[in-house]
Amino acid sequence: MKFFIAHLAFADQPQCWIEFREQWQWQLYMVLISLALFVIPTIIITACYAVMIKTIWTKSAVQFPRGHRGSTNDRI
User: Are 40 and 53 contacting, i.e. CB atoms less than 8 angstroms apart?
Assistant: First the structure.
């Protein structure tokens, strides 16, 4: 990634710019940034919530066992 960075002087102030020569390089860069910032964290958060829901569901099943149909212990 370091070879994509260019140091330029603009209005006598140094600035860092990312320069890609081809359009596909910009597209690849944007896809990788989108994956790193949005998709991967979303997958991790979803997996964590799934584990929490499964844990709560199984713990409540142990605490409140299912009775026969029509009893007050029957879960909805």
Answer: no
